[in-house]
Amino acid sequence: MSAHTALLARPLDFGVAGPLGSFDAYVERVGRVPVLSREEEQNLARRFREDNDLDAARQLVLSHLRFVVHIARGYSGYGLPVSDLVQEGNVGLMKAVKRFDPAVGVRLVSFAVHWIRAEIHEYVLRNWRLVRIATTKAQRKLFFNLRRIKRNLSWLSAEETRAVAQDLGVPAAEVSEMEQRLSAHDMSFDPLPSSEEEDGYGPAAYLSAPAADPAEQVENSDWDSDSQAQLATGLKSLDERSRSIIQRRWLTDPKATLHELAAEYGVSAERIRQIEVAAFTRLRGLLPAPAV
User: Fold this and answer.
1) 44 pLDDT exceeds 90?
2) Is the same domain home to 137 and 103?
3) 23: number of CA atoms within 13 Å, CB side?
4) What is the Cα Rg of the chain in Å?
């Protein structure tokens, strides 16, 4: 198990008795964890990096959880639970702790911001729309920047679109397309009926049923009836012992086992299996090929 996996697998202990309860209680708890000095942070980071000391890594994570909450609250405008954003940010923090090199000389919080934001960005893009609206790195950058720009604006004018495109280094057409995606709304595939729209239909109502063709239904029904009739005829063509074995092994409940039939007929289980195979071979020659 890697150090990162082990760290994820262990529960976070805030050093206070009692359950965490609500998100507000969580925020209050993480706010009470002392902030590390530079010397303390360097010492813990070296212990984790050089000695794989998971307790040192946990102390680094716990002391920076308050910063994750602060960053996550900046993404509350996307309509997603802040607690979920914090959880994703915590994953980014743990990834940062795993990769943090104290020899570089920077503080962990400065290094971890990138990893925290990256995990939150991924979560927002996965859950803000049912259909992903940004798949490439350039589109993700455009998504978050355009969301920030449009907080106090309605539709962008042609001049504003060109300015945004130039500022972000993307074609104006991509800015317009992303603006349309941001303004779109998800529609339920199969919405529940409402009193206001009794005659309204969702997209699911306009799709044909898997077996909607009457001709196919009649054909399948005829094929099933014909197969059952030929199966009955085929069973009659078998000798009494073979017919009984097939019926009791495959056409009745509970089904008999090879050993039960072997004991009844006074032969080996292998002999019962051979009779069964021979009977199936005969039946296959009498039954029609399956419908396609």
Assistant:
1) yes
2) no
3) 10
4) 33
40, 108: one domain: yes
Confidence of residue 163 (pLDDT cuts 50, 70, 90): confident
Structure tokens that stand for 201 in this block: 């239909």
The two structure tokens encoding residue 252: 């009745």
Confidence (pTM)? 0.46
**CA 5, CA 60: separation in Å to the nearest integer?**
16
Query: Beta-carbon neighbour count of residue 196 at 10 Å?
Result: 6
CATH number at residue 55: 1.20.120.1810
pLDDT digits (tens, 9 = 90+) for 83-125: 888 999 999 999 999 999 998 889 999 999 989 988 888 887 7
Q: What is the pLDDT of residues 178-189, one digit of tens each?
A: 666 665 555 554
**27 CB neighbour count, 10 Å cutoff:** 18
